[in-house]
Amino acid sequence: MKKTIILLLVVAVAAACAREPKFTLTGTIDGAGNETVVLQKRIPGGYQVLDSATIENGTFKIEGVIDYPQMVNLAIRGKRGGLNFFIENSDIAVHGHADSLYMGSVSGSATQAEYDSYKALLDETNAEMTKLYDSYRQARTDGNNELVASLEKEIEALDEKQMNIKKEFLANNTSSFIAPAVLSEISYYLEADEMEGILNSFDTTLNQVQTVITLKERLVQLKAVAIGQKAPDFTLNDPDGNPISLSSKIGGDTKLLLLDFWASWCGPCRAENPFVVKTWTEYNKKGFDVFGVSLDRSREDWLKGIQDDKLTWTHVSEVKYWDCAPAKLYAVSAIPSNFLIDENGIIVGHNLRGDALAEKVKEILDAR
User: Where in the chain is the domain with CATH 2.60.40.10?
Assistant: First the structure.
């Protein structure tokens, strides 16, 4: 009798183990030889490989367990790009072509289906944005400044519309596993108090998500450089090798200082530079200045960017790309990024883009 009970227990345990959640990822890759697919997830500084498999006769299979639904990347070893999708413990099928895997399709992941629905909310505004940017580039090429200014306002309005769509999604989906990814998308544009409010609204089941953990760590940094806080000091070398501290540029004749993080390789930074130049030209004699911190990879590119864009203010850099101590100090995760600092060293503005920079500078200086 005891043997029978033990046997039944063994069978029950085995059956329970067999029912443990796992994912089975099967794929059909057209145009592939006996290549290797790599399942990986993004981590700071690169990717972490979760598993891999050999493609045989155009198909592959990977099995495993995932702690929670999360974004992964499926790539063919030796080829650039790959397919990003949400994986979960279910039967998931992927289909694509070896030369354009990033355009592949995914089925069987409820979280991915939810993410596709979220992206569909942005389809209309994305299409509008593409048309606007095409017109904007052409207007700049033609030197049509009046049209450029008009299109900039339309682009800004569309940006705000997209931001509202994303914020509304977050407000209505506080337990969704794609909510952390959406928050990460917009976190660059949020001040500390707003990001804290969104994070606090999330269901506790999301506390295990690495993106949430990372955002909470970033929030601590953001609070230290939020509007109203004292700007942390640092010292870097200028192009001639002279050490220049941030604090040495604050006060005196400088009533407002823009701490500007940028790089010559950064397209949005180069597009933003004319607005900074315009503001500096108009308000420099009234007490406005700029302190540029470059995240360039080479001294030559850095200096060429300064010269080409006619950036006539003080510049410093470690020329270490993202391994830039002041960028880390100021929780900079994307560029361009800027902080407006008053004569007392207090941060009074953050990420002022386009005409918003000149408007803020004028507002503060006029109030003096």
Answer: 16-108
For residues 55 and 37, the answer to whether their CB atoms sit within 8 Å is: yes
Domain with CATH 3.40.30.10 in the chain: 235-367
DSSP at 68:
S
CB count, 10 Å around CB of 164? 10
- With a threshold of 0.85, does the pTM exceed it? no
Decide if pLDDT at 209 tops 60.
yes
Structural tokens at position 280: 């500096």
Q: How far apart are CA 293 and CA 327, in angstroms?
A: 8
Name the helix (H) or strand (E) containing 366. helix 355-367
User: 16-108: what CATH class?
Assistant: mainly beta
Distance of CA 40 to the CA centre of its chain: 19
Burial of residue 10 (CB within 10 Å: 0-12, 13-18, 19+) is: exposed
Please list the residues that pair with 60 across neighbouring strands.
27
Q: Write the single-letter amino acid at 115.
A: Y
Mean pLDDT of all residues in 290-318: 97
For 29-80, the pLDDT digits (tens) are: 999 999 999 999 988 768 899 999 999 999 999 999 999 999 999 999 999 8
Q: Average the pLDDT over 175-183 and give the result.
A: 97
* First vs last C-alpha separation in the chain: 92
